[in-house]
Design brief:
With 723 residues, the protein is of the alpha/beta class. It contains 27 helices and 23 strands. The two termini are 52 Å apart.
Length: 723
């Protein structure tokens, strides 16, 4: 490794600046804080490398043009019927190429499709946005990185023809493996050779992910290095000229790239090999860092949304880090080499991995130390040998059993810690500190300050789950349901949990913010869209108290506190009064807990799903005022009557409602009344998660939304205004 100044100013690695500018430009679209880093990089180029500054401007213009074209291709007009060619197939969906656009088609019909089939399909299009909550899996960006413009569920599917498609080769090989080898062998071979874990047992994949060794099966540099070394040894024995030998290797690598479906990590590794060969043939004046930069820029020009793909991020980040740190990683001891690489790669990728997993397993490093050597020296070579020599199946079976027994043994230890660098600022600080630390280690200087600052950064993320002295109300977008998070310096309350969510989006938010304890969870009433996620939350988060209006069978085995009208809940400062509780009403909505309290500078009224009978009772005994109301029953016409809105005289309303829901919520009559009363209204189906933040010494609430409906959303566009 060289010092940062040497890396940035030397001829070797000169073009890495174009890659840095490209990455920062794309990241600042959704992470406004990155603009500062982009400006700093451009200023550096302007003062130190003027020609490269102009080159970077030209490349950014090309990148923006590519981004514009991609966005146009992702805009897929809805049709009654789609006709196209199947390009890729999975267990329950296939990818359909319709003209220049791709769409993902889910189906449960008995019709089996293969790559190359021409099909006619019709079905129901569904949204790829999911719940608009921070720290969720960005499915929309994931599809954009794959070039998928639309997703439908097929209700009619017909194969109209067939033409040859290259991806049929991979399918044919998988079918061949199924016929020749027993299940444990062929499933592992498909996983190792093609990176496809669809056929592995859930127990095995879960253990691999838990131990953090999935990268072993993400076909990349190690696989390619083994293939190149193997081919080189064979071709040497044929006494072929060096150029001819390398041309044959390139051709065979091209075939392997095709078989793996052009996975980013594979293409990157193969292109590096090709570039190294071409560099030697033509004596090109480029370093490996330059070549890697050219390859990454090519990927981003092809599809700028690859910047959001986890495989792309990890593949290039670690590859760049290893090239830059090659001197630091040098050692003659293979065990020390694996340990160094594992620690180094984990340090470099940590913020990205934590954002995905929201936790860290302390068994990851020892597992890497054990299994990287075993995988590279035994398992990977045996996979290739067995693929060509089926007689070795029994030996390979023994190797697989040894491997799976080892991962199952290590995975049983509970060494997982929930943690994440919750903010963009924390992630940037981490990377800068790691870079500074590595530079000082390489230059043999003391690094006590860097280590101390890293520890402080971790402790700050664990201790301050929100900005100190800031209170807020966060109305989560949980579709057609309610989930509201109240926070101040000494109390955290969740009102309702939303409906059952297989993706645990709400839990992902709390884990992503390092929130492991809630003082209270309040369930307003016993409907699934208000209590569906209670069990999943209780399994991962410690809760001081569960509060309900009455104990139903849903909470029979839970220790709950039953409250009635007039009771108070919350903490010392964040205190809520129960205005209405269980009424014994046959309509469960009217048994909702109605809560009122002062948060920040505003009086809040949380109506649950309470309807007009409850509203009438509240009017008759009116002893409160409200600035902001969470509208009852998702904006149904059974709530928010004219008389009620007149009596409480609120200034702002929030409606928690699902996009395009089947109930027609919110009702037009309710929206008309809110407009007539000049009440500022926010809706989760339009704004995503809505947050009212209260800063000390500031007599306004800052209102922000987390709506990623479009692909160009950022912190600036999430700012709604002041209230």
């Amino acid at each position: 490794m060289k010092t940062l100044k040497t890396i940035l100013q030397s001829d070797a690695g000169y073009f890495i600046h174009l890659a840095i500018v490209a990455v920062l430009m794309l990241l600042c679209i959704n992470h406004l804080i990155v603009i500062g880093l982009l400006l700093a990089e451009m200023l550096f180029l302007w003062t130190k490398m003027r020609r490269l500054f102009y080159a970077s401007l030209f490349f950014v213009a090309m990148l923006l043009g590519s981004l514009f074209i991609r966005v146009m291709l992702l805009d897929f007009p809805s049709r009654d019927q789609y006709q196209g060619t199947v390009t890729d197939v999975s267990e329950d969906f296939f990818v359909l190429q319709v003209g220049w656009r791709k769409m993902m088609v889910y189906h449960d019909e008995d019709v089996k499709v293969i790559p190359g089939d021409q099909v006619s399909v019709s079905g129901d299009e569904f949204s790829n946005n999911g719940y608009q909550i921070e720290h969720r899996f960005e499915y929309q960006y994931y599809l954009a990185s794959l070039g998928i413009a639309s997703t439908i569920y097929a209700n009619q599917l017909e194969i109209t023809g067939h033409e040859f498609h290259l991806n049929i080769i991979k399918i044919t090989i998988v079918e061949y493996f199924k016929k020749v080898f027993s299940e444990p062998v062929w499933t592992m071979m498909v996983y190792i050779l093609f990176g496809n874990d669809d056929y592995l047992s859930e127990e095995t994949t879960s253990a691999i992910q838990r131990l953090g060794i999935s990268h072993l099966f993400a076909i990349s540099g190690m696989n390619i290095a083994l293939i190149v070394g193997f081919l080189d040894q064979i071709l040497k024995r044929l006494f072929l000229p060096k150029r001819t030998k390398e041309m044959i290797i390139i051709a065979l690598l091209g075939v392997y790239m095709l078989l793996t479906g052009f996975a980013v990590s594979v293409v990157r590794a193969i292109l590096i090999v090709i570039c190294v060969y071409v560099k030697e043939w033509k004596s090109l004046p480029f370093s490996r860092l330059d070549l890697m930069s050219f390859i990454m820029m090519g990927f981003l020009l092809y599809n700028p949304f690859l910047i959001h793909a986890l495989g792309f991020q990890l593949s290039f980040l670690i590859a760049f880090a290893i090239i830059i740190g090659k001197d630091f990683l040098k050692t003659s001891n293979p065990v020390i080499a694996v340990l160094k690489i594992s620690v180094y790669a984990n340090l470099m990728a940590l913020p990205i991995l934590l954002e995905v997993n929201k936790e860290y397993n302390f068994m990851t490093l020892p597992a890497n130390l054990i299994f990287v050597v075993f995988f590279e020296k035994v398992m990977l070579p045996m996979t290739f040998l067995t693929a060509f020599i089926p007689a070795l199946e029994m030996i390979f079976m023994y190797v697989i059993n040894l491997f799976t027994s080892g991962i199952m043994f290590l995975a049983q230890f509970d060494t997982v810690v929930s943690f994440n660098f919750a903010s963009d600022m924390a992630k940037i600080c981490y990377f800068l500190l790691i870079l500074s630390l590595l530079i000082r280690i390489e230059t043999k200087r003391k690094c006590k300050i860097q280590v101390a600052l890293l520890i402080l950064l971790v402790l700050a993320n664990l201790t301050f789950t929100a900005t100190p002295s800031v209170s807020f109300v966060k109305i989560f977008d949980v579709g057609q349901g309610d989930a509201i998070y109240l926070h101040d310096s000494e109390c955290d309350i969740l009102i309702d949990t939303g409906d059952i969510d297989n993706f645990d989006t709400l839990l992902a938010y709390f884990k992503g913010e390092n929130i492991t304890y809630l003082d209270q969870i309040i369930i307003t009433h016993d409907h699934s869209d208000h209590q569906g996620e209670i069990r999943d939350l209780l399994a991962k988060i410690t809760v001081g108290e569960i509060i309900v209006g009455y104990k139903t069978s849903t909470f029979q085995d839970l220790d709950v506190r039953v409250v009635t009208a007039g009771d108070t809940v919350g903490g010392k400062h964040l205190q809520l009064t129960v205005l209405s509780a269980y009424r014994g009403d046959s309509e469960e909505n009217n048994n909702s807990l109605v809560l009122w309290g002062r948060i920040g500078i505003h009086d809040w009224l949380f109506m649950g799903d309470a309807e007009s009978p409850v509203e009438n009772d509240l009017i008759h005994g009116l002893t409160f005022s409200a600035d902001i109301i969470k509208i009852g029953h998702h904006g149904s016409d059974t709530s928010s009557t004219k008389a009620f809105l007149t009596a409480i005289d609120v200034q702002c309303a929030v409606i928690s409602v699902g996009s395009d829901n089947s109930f027609g919520h919110p009702d037009e009559s309710v929206i008309s009344r809110l407009i007539a009363f000049n009440i500022t209204t926010y809706r989760t189906d339009q704004c995503g998660t809505i947050t009212f933040s209260y800063l000390p010494f500031f007599d306004r609430a800052i209102v922000t939304k987390d709506n990623r409906d479009n692909l160009f959303n950022n912190e600036l566009s999430r700012f709604v205004g002041f209230f």
